[in-house]
Specification:
The chain has helices at residues 15-26, 46-56, 72-80, 101-111, 142-148, 161-166, 180-190, 209-213, 217-233, 238-241, 245-250, 255-269, and strands spanning 5-11, 33-39, 61-65, 87-90, 96-97, 115-126, 129-134, 158-160, 194-206. The chain is an alpha/beta fold.
Amino acid sequence: MNPKVSIIMGIYNCESTLEEAIESIINQTYENWELIICDDCSSDGTFEVAKKYKEKYPDKIKLIKNEKNMTLGPTLNRCMDYVEGKYIARQDGDDFSHKERLEKQVRILKENSDIAAVGTNMISFDENGEHGVHSLPEKVDIDYYLKRGVIFFHATLLIRTEVMKKLRGYTDKWYAVQAEDYELWSRFLKEGYKGLNLHENLYYVREDLNTYKRKNIKRRLRGLILRFNVNKTLNAPMRIYFYMIKDIIALFIPRSIFIKYYRRKMNSQA
């Protein structure tokens, strides 16, 4: 029998997109999965949508709810308390997965015992259609991470449960809010784990202007502090610290300019 995959999904105010996200899991060609959903105190009808699916698929879906808003990292940690699978996958409530995503990712981990985690390409889309493909180097590389801050696209991740537990899940440090994946990758690399990215378009990420508007000055400042701590954790060479200069400059660039840049970037990917 194929090993079970536990998909962890933290949801917050995604009433209009959650059904599509859950359906993309239900329609996976890989059948041995469980979906663990934690609602982070949504103020719309998100929880009710999730509850409807929980009632329809009681043996496949687990649903919990935070008593107060905890942000994504701690919410995903709550999901992990209910994990029964050999592998843990991520999925966001406003995105969706290709029907063969889990099947192809599981195959990689089953056939490569030295690989701890695998990600995929992402197709960017919004209400106007698809805008392009996000891709990362196939092999996880610490130097690339220190320069670019990423080794996997978080929501595409499939990781061995034993590895995630050894890493103790996501941090609750204040400066890692909305960057919990970036901090997790630093510990993943520090422990010497190997990973790879499957160059297939198996995940669809919803990216619109509102997504970028959330990247305000407080978030950029937290990111700067986090990046400094990550560099220390991984004993980064001094040359890597120079990559922080652009982050410092970004603190003083008006938000309107960033939004114009983001619009132009999305249009260029169309």
